[in-house]
Amino acid sequence: MIPIFFIYSDLALFVLRLGFAVIFLAHGWPKIKNLQATFKNFNAMGFKPGFFWGFVAAVVEFCGGILIALGLFTQLAAFFLAITMLVAMVWKIKNKHALAGGYEFDLILFLVAIILWTHGAGAYSLENYWQIWLL
């Protein structure tokens, strides 16, 4: 343990949060943009009804990405994103995908979601800003 690096922990959490948000925005936007294709894809994957689960995934990924980027309702958004990634991992494991080249990306996103769920947004967030100014 190198205590001097603790002074960067809020900055590290901010960078982690932004990178995580960008990934979900990049994956959620196409789902939101073309809901009909999303519904068909979810039906084909066995998530029935596809219109319901596709809509839920699209909203959680896109809106969750926005909230995480802003640092607003971070723990709630991270909780729902963690569930989303857990479902994706279970689906891939059930369908015999390997760790490497299969569900490793879902696993790391799940773990980052758990970190944000348990740690919150950190100092560089709207949550922190409004908390300071509302006191």
Topology diagram in text:
Elements: H1 9-33, H2 35-45, H3 50-70, H4 74-94, H5 99-119, H6 126-134
Textual characterization of the structure:
This protein is an all-alpha fold and 135 residues long. Helix content is 80%, strand content 0%. The chain contains six helices and no strands. It has helices spanning 9-33, 35-45, 50-70, 74-94, 99-119, 126-134. Helix 1 packs antiparallel against helix 3 (50-70) and helix 1 (9-33) packs across helix 5 (99-119). The longest helix has 25 residues, at 9-33. The radius of gyration is 16 Å and the shape is globular. The termini are far apart.
Short summary of the structure?
The chain has 135 residues and is an all-alpha fold. It has helices at 9-33, 35-45, 50-70, 74-94, 99-119, 126-134.
- Major sheet: none
Enumerate the spans where pLDDT stays under 50 for 5 or more consecutive residues: none
Global shape:
globular
> How do the helices and strands follow one another from N- to C-terminus?
HHHHHH
Strand content: under 5%
- Report how far the terminal alpha carbons are from each other: 35 Å
Q: Give me the number of helical elements.
A: 6
| Percent helix range | over 70%
Structural class: mainly alpha
Q: How large, in whole angstroms, is the Cα Rg?
A: 16 Å
Number of strands: 0
Average predicted confidence as pLDDT: 94
Keywords:
single chain, 135 residues, mainly alpha, 6 helices, 0% strand
